[in-house]
Every structure is written in structure tokens, then in C-alpha cells.
Amino acid sequence: MGSATQPPPTTPRSHASVTEQPGQQPPRLSSTQKAYREDPDGFVERLQARANSLYPDGYTVRPASEPHRFLVAHTNPKDGTVTEYTVSAWEERCTCPFYARQANGERLAEGGGPLLPCKHLVGLPALVRETWRQHARDGDVSALIALWRHWMVFVAARRRRRQIAEWTERRRQQREQQSHASVTEQQQQQRKEESNEPRRCAGSCCAR
Question: What is the pTM of this model?
Fold first, then answer.
């Protein structure tokens, strides 16, 4: 399975930076913002590592009622408390606090920038795969089939979206080439017409 999303800067949603007004104190940075700005590459690497270990860390996934959405749940091993987030694989959004804070204006990068996908988004494909395997080991065929169908609907829709985007880009390039060829042809025709026009002598012979 391909990854539903990749670490930044592939996310297309960008936002304007926050302008500091004269006399105002700069906004206090959260611990997450500080960690990202001190070491962006290391931050992304740690996020990727956490995304890769969702299943060992106690996460599972099941289909949501809406297409392309999944319910990612974590069970606390100490008290059994379950925390569940809705992950939209299609929109590349999540209801977890990490993503929600960014969506509400807490940009990680200084001056704004794109939203960083959370570990639930990045690790969703691997979590789906591991949850399938768990259902198979448990003999829970109905849960396995339900998750497989839900995931494959998303994969098929994602493939169609990519095909449409590629087709649109090819059409754009073709139109540009045709437009360039038309302009070139017009220029060649104009030069040909100019070369066929009778030349007028500017010498004294024309004055007699």
C-alpha cells in the first residue's frame, strides 16, 4: 500500500503569516513550535518514527461511516482509556490536537507555512495493514473484509484523482504547445508576406 500522505512540504494548504503589531509582545511559542523551529528535520524524523510505530504503540483503525474516513483509536495500557480520532485520508486532515492546533492558526514554521501532517495521517496505511493482520489472526473475517473494502474504496478514488490530475496536466501542456505552434506559424507567414512585397528603391533613380 502506498502512503496516504508524506511529510512536509507536500501538503498544498498554505496560510498567511501572522503580522506583529507595533507595541505588541510576540506570541508565546508552544513546546511543539519550539521543538520544530529548533530542529525541523529532526522533528519530522521523529514524527515519521512515531507514525511507523502506531500499531506497536497500541493503535488500531476501523472504518468510519463516511467514505475515505477512518477511526484511529489508542488504548492506554495503564487504565484502558480509549482515545479515538477521525482521519480523513482524502482531505488529509485529522481531529487530533496536533493537527487541530495547526488548523486553528498555530503554525509550526516561523511566518506561517503549510500544515504538517500528523502521525495518524502519515502512519495510516501501515496501521491499516497491521490491523488487517490482527483481524486475520483473530479470525474476525467480517472486520477484516469491512476494513479492506473501506480502504480499497479510498485507494481507487485516490488513483482516479491522480489520473485526472495527470490528464489535466497533459492537456495543459498540449494547449501550450499548440498555442506556441500557432504563434510561430503566424510569424513565419508574416515574414513570408513581407519578403514577397516589392521593394522600393531609395536611390536617386526613383527621383528622376
Answer: 0.68
pLDDT of residue 184: 72
Q: What angle do CA 11, 43, 120 make, to 5 degrees?
A: 55
Q: Return the SS3 of 2.
A: coil
Q: CA 163 to CA 160: how far, in whole Å?
A: 5
Give me Rg for the CA atoms of the chain: 29
- Cell numbers placing 11: 501538503
Give the Cα separation of 114 and 92 in Å (integer).
12
Q: Write the single-letter amino acid at 55.
A: Y
Q: Where are the domains of the chain?
A: 31-164
Q: Which three cell numbers, joined as nine digits, stand for 47?
A: 514524527
Number of H helices, E strands in the chain: 6, 4
Cis peptide before 9 (omega within 30 of 0): yes
* Amino acid, res. 37: R
